[in-house]
Write a structure and sequence with these properties.
The chain is mainly beta and 656 residues long. It is 7% helix and 27% strand. The protein binds MU-OXO-diiron and calcium ion (CA) (2 copies).
Length: 656
């Protein structure tokens, strides 16, 4: 979700309040801006080896061998595009970007064609959803040319979806205009899609419409709540007195795939879907505040009691989780895995640790919130898929503290340990998880500049954390891991688990790059000197690592005004002389942000998502009738359509 949106949605959901929602006094490390030595030399040669290799479905996700040379990953080889903004997308020369799935495309043989003038909720349930964010590819029989695509549909832009809806009014969020059917369509356009796809001999991908796997998940799909918070009193509502079932997932941003072939879909800015006020002196008031509840960006509460805080004060506790979905079984019930904590989850980057435990890295996208990881208690069983299905219900959640000397500690969030006791209002692990943020405040985690996506390079065990921006960090709040006040362009941190052990509590880290325009000294960007006009970017958000271990970064928040360029995809060197060199591969049309990215195991197809094309940019309202672009159809009367693209190299071969 972009920061530049012209309505309450962005400014209040992703950046609630003037100072985020974190009132704790956790260390800003005072005046310490450590001028640190480059730690890479210290790390060389300390990388661990593991025997576990990747298995079903997903590439990587398992550690293999350490780099044996100065340059473990090959450098990029493509001609970069021009940075800029216009009404369409651009991809590097020699590549094709096929529009594979657009909002409203029928997914089932009996689904109606998309008609934006007469859309219904029933139709939307059978058509591709809105604002695609995470995209994952799960091979069928190990194939890079035939598999399942899983896609998150994060949020909706009513002003662009519905004729006559008008521009979004930041003072009103369109509530007065909210109509029952529009809300029903929004509810149906959220969630996710599972689609079977096949690469054709002409290199184009095709959607298999009569696939047995096709599935639409919406904000009303029944889901099971599992793990330590399931069944707790604070999870109970009038329609679910057992606290174990919830309807739907909302604001699913990024995610991940597990090596047992399931999809982790992460609920991010769930707070904006709830309106109304908690009853006075209600026990959930402090919890509610810490997650930014109380200012709705959607009018769902007008028609659904559960989205009204006055009527269902516990309903928000049932959102903000990581949802695990088995795309190979369309009848399976998605599961909200409470053991992984309740935050505004960005994504879920997993790796099989060398001891067989599964470790998931998680970012909480809010100004001054935290980086987390979860380590399972059990071990991944590569020979028995079903044996892994409840692996994510038991384990330890940790939050990161980054120390100025380039070391760091994972602090466990375990009931009864340290301050996480009854004296502080935590009666059980369920309380710790429902109030993950407060637990993290108390143990002394480092307040970050909006942690977005995280990825692990299985070749080197390095972990990459995207910190998108935080313009509200003041001079006296600067610290080594968040080294810039008024950080408008974000930065990327590289972490290394102690001895290559992802379950360990120790790690080392350094800032890989401070983003922004390197030609303006005051910006303080640290791209390599090779990175010139087109290569730099601001606001890193989603990211991917290809099978050769190379880092690709998608951005959210660039615009003509912010950086003189549209959002897009950049390839960033992480090794050797070229470390910190970035190149521009793809850019989105006006108003959009770049999501995905995801590679097939053979690196020959790169899936990208173009989210909210045509959305208003600062000061320029956008409506159904007058959007910033009509990408990708460019037809009168057809609004812009968020879409998933399949990028391939002309004549075949690996991307980049
Ligand atoms: Fe939905 Fe943090 O971006
Ligand atoms: Ca973002
Ligand atoms: Ca994001």
């Amino acid at each position: 979700m972009t920061e530049a949106m012209g309505r309450l949605r962005a400014s209040e959901l992703e950046d609630s309040g003037d100072f985020g929602n974190n009132p704790s006094s956790n260390l800003t490390m005072g005046e310490v801006i450590a001028t640190r030595f480059n730690r890479r030399d210290l790390l060389k040669g300390s990388l661990a080896v593991t025997a576990i290799t990747a298995t079903v479905g997903t590439r990587a996700l398992a550690s293999t061998t350490p780099p044996t040379s100065e340059h473990p990953n090959p450098t990029f080889d493509f001609e970069e595009i021009e940075a800029g903004v216009d009404e369409t997308h651009h991809v590097a020369a020699g590549y094709d970007a096929q529009i594979l799935l657009r909002w409203g495309d029928p997914l089932f043989p009996d689904a109606p064609e998309f008609d934006p003038q007469a859309q219904t909720a029933e139709e939307q349930c059978r058509q591709f959803g809105y604002n695609s964010d995470f995209v994952g590819y799960l091979p069928i029989n190990g194939s890079s040319e035939h598999g399942l695509l899983v896609v998150n549909h994060e949020y909706t832009n009513e002003e662009l979806m519905f004729p006559g809806a008008g521009a979004q009014d930041p003072e009103d969020a369109g509530f007065h205009e909210a109509l029952r059917e529009r809300v029903a369509i929004e509810v149906a356009a959220h969630g996710g899609s599972v689609v079977e796809i096949e690469r054709q001999p002409n290199d184009r991908w095709k959607v298999v419409k009569d696939s047995k796997y096709t599935r639409r998940i919406t904000a009303e799909t029944p889901m099971e709540i599992t793990g330590p918070a399931a069944g707790h009193n604070r999870m109970k509502t009038s329609t679910d007195p057992a606290g174990g079932r919830v309807l739907g997932m909302i604001n699913n941003c990024a995610g991940g795939l597990t090596p047992w072939g399931t999809w982790l879909s992460c609920e991010e800015n769930f707070n904006g879907y709830f309106w109304g006020k908690l009853p006075e002196a209600h026990a959930e008031i402090a919890n509610s505040r810490r997650y930014g509840l109380g200012r709705a960006a959607y009018a769902w509460g007008k028609f659904h009691d559960r989205f009204d805080l006055a009527k269902e004060p516990n309903e928000p506790n049932r959102f903000g989780w990581v949802v695990e979905i088995d795309p190979f079984d369309p009848s399976s019930m998605p599961r909200k895995r409470t053991a992984l904590g309740r935050t505004k989850h960005e994504g879920a980057a997993g790796i099989v640790n060398r001891d067989g435990r599964y470790v998931v890295y998680l970012g909480d996208d809010e100004r001054f919130d935290y980086v987390y990881k979860f380590a399972t208690a059990g071990k991944f069983d590569r020979n028995d898929r079903a044996a892994n299905f409840d692996l994510l219900d038991t384990g330890t959640l940790f939050v990161a503290r980054y120390d100025p000397d380039g070391s760091g500690t994972w602090l466990p969030l375990v009931h009864g340990e340290g301050p996480l006791t009854e004296a502080n209002g935590f009666e059980s692990q369920a309380d710790v998880l429902i109030e993950t943020r407060r637990a993290a405040d108390l143990v002394g985690a480092t307040k970050m500049d909006r942690p977005e996506d995280i990825e692990v390079d299985p070749k080197t065990n390095r972990v990459y954390v995207m910190l998108t921006n935080n313009t509200r960090r003041k001079d006296d709040q600067v610290d080594a891991a968040n080294p810039r006040a008024r950080n408008a362009f974000g930065h990327i941190i590289e972490m290394m688990p102690a001895d290559g052990d992802h379950a360990a509590t120790g790690f080392s880290w350094e800032v890989l790059v401070r983003c922004g325009d390197p030609s303006i000294a005051e910006v303080g960007a640290t791209f390599s000197s090779e990175t010139i006009r087109n290569g730099w970017f601001g606001m890193p958000d989603n990211c991917a690592i290809d099978s050769q271990g190379r880092l690709w970064i998608a951005t959210d928040g660039n615009s003509a005004k912010a950086t003189g360029r549209a959002d897009g995809l950049w390839a960033l060197e992480t090794d050797g002389e070229g470390r910190g060199t970035s190149r521009h591969f793809f850019r989105v049309p006006a108003g959009a942000e770049m999501c995905g990215p995801f590679f097939t195991p053979n690196d020959e197809t790169l899936f990208l998502a173009v989210q909210h094309p045509g959305e208003a940019e600062e000061g320029t309202p956008a409506t159904f009738e007058d959007p910033a672009t009509r990408w990708p159809d460019f037809k009168d009367g057809m609004p812009p359509r968020p879409s998933v693209l399949a990028v391939t190299k002309r004549g075949g071969g690996r991307i980049g």
